[in-house]
Fold each of these.
Amino acid sequence: MVRKVKENVVYSEEFREVVLQAYPDSPKIKELLDANAHFLGRYLDDGCCHSSMLSVPIDKIIAAKETGKQLEFVDVLYEMASRQKLCLLAYKMWGDQWYED
């Protein structure tokens, strides 16, 4: 399927906020965002896990239980999941910014 690309795309403020929250420490993403670059989509695609699942090493799970740091570990997992959700949202929003359909 060939998608119809919008012309003269300027990223919305809402989209910019989501991207900057999802990737606060990426100068390359900020550069592409500021340039309203189509190639930003490639970075956003690479940065998100499309499976909606996180991968956690089993040794970290075992270590959290053995050291009694399960609650801290859950907090870390929550932060990881929240960030991935923002990354997924940023990629979805990018498509809405660039394509008609």
Amino acid sequence: MSNQPNEDGKYESSFTTDSIPQLEQPRMYRVILHNDHYTTMDFVVTVLIKVFHRSAAEATKIMIDVHKRGKGLCGVYTFDIALTKVAQVDKMAKESEFPLKCSYEPA
């Protein structure tokens, strides 16, 4: 590469698109609520609406999955967001004195 223009008066560039690194998609994680015998169903629905921005109908369906199957899928997120959602649920549960457990796992 030179700083001098060629005979057409244009500058040459050695930049090629082959040298641009390809970005990978971030790994995704499932956020899961786990059933217990103390947390109220209303509280679980409230958590799903506030933390996971679910509609009341979606939140109720997930709450029923948690109640009947022992766990329910809240959403799939990148690692940082999944970790934040788990921390928000843990904080809400602790403040309300419920033992609600929330976890994440690779999707």
Amino acid sequence: MTTVASRNGHGSGECSPPSRTGTPQRTARGYASGKEDYLTRLRKVEGQLRGLQKMIEAGTWCPDVVTQVASATRALQEVAVGLLSDHLRHCVVHAMHSSEAEGGLALDEVTGTIRQVVRL
């Protein structure tokens, strides 16, 4: 079972953050089962962004461009919410089952992530 303690160098596992030492770490993530869905969504957003570039190049009316920017932004926000949900359901639940202290650390981490998202 993976725990938050692994983040502090006490083991390794699928819920630990990536290595900051420059050594690539191949681990499964909480979103691994929905990875293709996330990639599909992100490819659609990528297409929207290319479309926005073409709209600007073509001199499209500003409100129409802004509407499309808002659409792409919402699509990215949906991806972020889905990833957070998967992380809560997978990694945080595992940490909570491991110990109260590790569960608290995992919740603190998620709270920090939510703060970053809310600061948009």
